[in-house]
Amino acid sequence: MVNPTEAINLENLTKVFYARKKKIVALENIDLSVREGEFLCIVGPSGCGKTTLLRILAGLEKQTWGKVIIRSKNPEKPLTSMVFQGESVFPWMTVAENVAYSLRIRGIPKNERREIADHYLKLMGLDGFADTFPHQLSGGMKQRINVARAFVSDPEILLMDEPFGALDEQNRLILQQELLKIWEGSEKTTLFITHSIDEALVLADRIIIMTAHPGRVKAIVPIDIPRPRDILSLRSSPQFGALFQEIWRLLQEEVLKAQSMELKN
Fold it and tell me: Is 126 in contact with 174 (CB distance < 8 Å)?
């Protein structure tokens, strides 16, 4: 039975792919509970199944075996919304139209969806670009569209697959702070994949460290840092440095294993 404070419960989750008669175990025996309103970051070496896990939660993949229980409190809301690493904006739509797209699909009246979209455009610093087309914007601005669009749809669970991975350090810092601001206003259950320990520490309530292929949960590290958080002051704190070392100690062995596997293949 799912605890009423849990939004997600995974039991013995395993995913197997078959390619050219070869069995590939992407995820193995994942047991995980995510609390309602929790911001959970997932870190692990490349190829450990992080994205596959999010795709299963989004309904884009089906687990081979194991249980996936996602608790819905409001059937009228979308259950999940996913933000991908790559750009996924519609080039023929303006910024405002992109952000409001999910509302349009749900049949929300035009005036109402523009009002909702304008709120998130302002939160993401896009209010001056509402009638601009994506080709006129930088990569960082396009990713702001993706984040705003995810929040506009008001899902119960937000899934984010390295949304800032392709950005330069300056844009990453700005968008991390803006994401914190918008998330702290909604406290939406969020699973966020990143390769950056710094990014995970800034954002997360807990950090999941995954093993090298096949992906398993190696450790769960609670991040007991008060909110709201300021990135610059947080990154200069002794607590931040100690947590970084703890997570890297757990992760380093798995990264080296993954590199060794690549060399053998």
Answer: no
Residues 220 and 259 in one domain: yes
Q: How far is CA 229 from the centre of its chain?
A: 18
Domain match, 110 and 15 both = no
- Whether pTM exceeds 0.70: yes
87 within 8 A of 119, measured Cβ to Cβ: no
Distance, CA of 82 to CA of 25 (rounded, Å): 23
108-143: burial string, b at 16+ Cβ within 10 Å, e else: beeeebbebbbebbebbebeebbeebbeebeebbbb
What is the separation of C-alpha 164 from the centre of its chain, rounded to a whole number of angstroms? 10
Q: At 226, which CATH number?
A: 3.40.50.300
Number of DSSP helices (H) and strands (E) in the chain, helices first: 9, 9
| pLDDT, tens digit (0-9, with 9 covering 90-100), for 153-186 | 889 999 999 999 888 888 889 899 999 989 988 8
181 and 74 inside one domain: yes
Q: How confident is the model at residue 84 (pLDDT cuts 50, 70, 90)?
A: confident
